[in-house]
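Exercise 7.
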Amino acid sequence: CRAAKRLRDRQHQTIPDDPAFVATLPGFGRYTTNAVLSQAFDRRLPILEANSQRVLCRLFGIAQNPQESAVRKVLWQLAETLLPAKSVGDFNQAMMELGAMVCTPTTPKCPKCPLREHCQAKLQDRQEEIPLRVKRADTVAIEEVAVIVRRGNRLLLVQRPHEGRWAKMWEFPHHPREANESAETAARRLLATLGVEGGLVGELATIRHNVTRFQITMVCLHVKHRRGSPNAAGFPSVAWVRAADLHEYPLCTPQRKLARLVEAGR
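Solution. The predicted structure, written as tokens, is:
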């Protein structure tokens, strides 16, 4: 696949000092892009993650839920206004460490905080209330099936959409199982969606992982390709990859674990 080759060639080059380009790389959202470029090139780019957003909420007295899009937009703007002219990477790192070590979720160490005289939450004695803590949603169990489709000495990978979780990263095809559906039936349904025919060879592994409130159990099945070309339904790109080359593709953690199992059993 030419698109996959171009992607690999890009990743083998030194990352350029270009936020617009870096943001196109798989797995690079706003936080990762800004963190890398502020550290590597001292670009004046803000970051926002759990620790720094807690510091900002308390410093400016923002009592709303920081996960709400409107609140996060304000926090990003505030993070940018605080940036120094130089040593931006050090500043971003310091904000994260301040949240991790001093401005902690509970029992913050306010007497040790260098921002205590300016902190609205401290001045209002509301540091235990800010930011708003939202009750966690109940955990949801999800059953999935993944297919490792082998055509000769190559394996089928698909690329995730350009938006959403794990954007633009690559993976073995997988989808949820329906209620009371066997892994084998779900695998055949997935193959039909892909436009591929193949024989189920056996199970490679069952991988369990958590994504936010979802507990996912993914049964991974070997499939021997018979006929058909993947139609890339719902995927920007597809690629047939040698097991030895799987490490060249950006995969999320559970998919990387699956890739290691596949590589081990080449």
